Every structure is written in structure tokens, then in C-alpha cells.
Amino acid sequence: MAEHEESPGGVPPLDEEAAWAAIVAGYGQEPPDPPGARPFRPIENLMLPEEDVEPLQPKDSEEPKTPKTPEEDAPPTPLGSSVVFAPGVGLGGPGPRDHALADPDDADDADEGHFVQPEPELPPADTTAKFAWLAVVGGPVLLLVAVLLQWDMTWWLTTLCIGGFLGGFATLIARMQQGDDEDDDPGRGAVV
After folding, report:
1. What is the 8-class DSSP label of residue 186?
2. pLDDT given at position 139
3. How far apart are CA 143 and CA 136, in angstroms?
4. How far is 158 from 166, CA to CA, in rounded Å?
5. Which of 43, 66, 41 is nearest to 51 (CA)?
6. Contact between residue 131 and residue 175 where contact means Cβ atoms under 8 Å apart
7. Residue 168: CB partners within 8 Å, gap ≥ 6?
8. Which residues contact 146 (CB under 8 A, 6 or more apart)?
9. How does residue 26 score in pLDDT terms, banded at 50, 70 and 90?
10. Distance CA 168, CA 162 (A)
């Protein structure tokens, strides 16, 4: 064992070997309770009065009596009354599984102020857009029908199917609204 020298503060250095020996010797043992600690009580006995605590004796006439508030008049709450439950959850109150459907007779009165969203109106489609969509959808459908029914794939049938799809697609792309929204730049912030 090496000699121990005192550190500059006058405190002897820690003997690590002795500390480890104490830890190993006390392995598996429960540490002692701190002074003044009460012994462990199982949850079944928590409501029972403690043996070492004397109940408070009411003082006869030392203080003038004041009227009691409703909280003071209430019986003592059981242990655990400081637990706060989430809204709608309580001890004995209605819970989420206590839900019942409303009577159909009451539904007439309940719908009085109910908002019903109107059906959106689609913009009127022009003839060119209708034919372009017909070509985009109809070309592949006609090609599928021709293959399933084993028609001879003549040049005019192939041109009609593939050309109709490509022509309708090009027409729809060309008629899209151009993105000339440079005046409404959202990156400038608020405009006064």
C-alpha cells in the first residue's frame, strides 16, 4: 500500500481500495433509513392512523371561533385526493364508454343551427377542353378494347388511339393558365 499524503486543504486523500471493499461488502444489503424516517407501510394500511402520531386535540377557548367555510365543513377527503384527473375522467363520473346515441326525435331540433356546406360549382367547361379530355381518356381505353377483343391493329386504329392521347394531352397542357403571378410575390411580406 502506498503512503498517503495530505492534500493542500488538510483533507486526507480517499482510500479507493477501502471504499471499494466497503461497497463490495455491502452489496445486496438494504441501506439504513435516514434518521427520522418512518417505516414503509403497504398501500392497504395507508388509510389507517399511524401509531406514533397523536391526533390533534381541539383547543377549547384559546382562540375566538370564526365561522367555518364550506371547505372546512366538508368531511375529510381520503388519501390520494390531491390526484388531479384529466377533464372528463373522474371517480364515478361519466366516462368515454358511457356515451349513448341521441334520440332521433331530438335530431330535428338539433339541426336547426347546423351549417350545411353547399355543393361547389364547377366552372363551365368549353368544348375544346371536353374533347381534349375525351381524347386523353378515350385513346388508351380504345387501345385496351382493341387488344382484349383481338382486333387487327390497323394503322388508322393505332393512329387514333396513340395520336388521340398525345393530342389531347398536348391540348390540355397548352391551355393551362400561365404562371404570370410576378405581381403577387409572397416573399415581400405585408403590403400597406
Report:
1. G
2. 95
3. 12
4. 12
5. 41
6. no
7. 131, 132, 133, 134, 135, 136, 139
8. 153, 157, 161
9. confident
10. 10
